[in-house]
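Issue: ligand-bound run for 4'-deoxy-4'-aminopyridoxal-5'-phosphate - logging full I/O for the record.

Environment: standard queue, default settings, no custom constraints.

Inputs:
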Amino acid sequence: MICYLNGRFLPLAEAKVSVLDRGFLFGDGVYEVVPAYSRKPFRLDDHLRRLQDSLDGIRLANPHDDAAWRERILRLVGEQDFEDQSVCIQVTRGAASAPPLRDHPFPRDVAPTVFMFAQPLVTASAAQKAAGVCAVTAVDNRWLRCNIKATALLANVLLRQQAVDAECAETVMLRDGFLTEGAASNIFVVRDGVLLAPPPSNLMLTGITYDVVLELAAAHGIPHAVRPVAEAEVRAADELWMTSSTREILAIVKLDGAPVGAGVPGPLAQRMDALYQTFKQQVMRA
Ligand code: PMP
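Outputs:
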């Protein structure tokens, strides 16, 4: 598998970064995950905009302009021998080249590390979509800058593991009695025919899929509201969805062991998934 590291395309096994890289020492970096269907990156402009926001959030200069990113990403995608891909982009603050080698403040004159690789994209299977998935809830104990797509994901890792330990797909997080998001997804609630989504803020990452879902809801006259969603509304939901670039739209049918609504994927989840699939095809053909 060919990856990209600091200007070079090379086999993954040959890609090496310094043990002093601040991504390794401090989790001092940001990332993006871009799906590519039939080798066409989906919503790449949006991902590059969010990458810029994340870089701004950690005060790291963007090493490339959008055209340079685009060129590198397209070449990386073209180097793989599979069609549908999940492209992971990671930019860290690099490694200090002079003492102090491990110090919290930003080192001077340090070059960022830019690493990208692609994996086969595995979206939910038809059987998984038909059955839905289960989720657990947990207190959102992350920092207060969750809008930055930071590589420092330890809290998310621990939270997602709680779901895996319960043989579930996702952990739905609650902070101060309100829904924030999933450990690695956004969460939507359907109540009385209205699609509810928490508003973008520092308490969650605004997903590219989240944006597409809301665009589709608006375009197709699906009643929706972007507003704080209380825990009680999550627990009394008719439908609960998790959304992300790799999972797309997946119905959560059981929460903390209790059925969500009728305990099967609801009609709006199925409709939104169909709209999403159609939209994807249209974009990819364009
Ligand atoms: N929130 C978190 C914490 C995530 O890790 C992800 C997945 N990257 C999302 C939301 C969904 O974002 P997207 O739709 O851009 O994949």
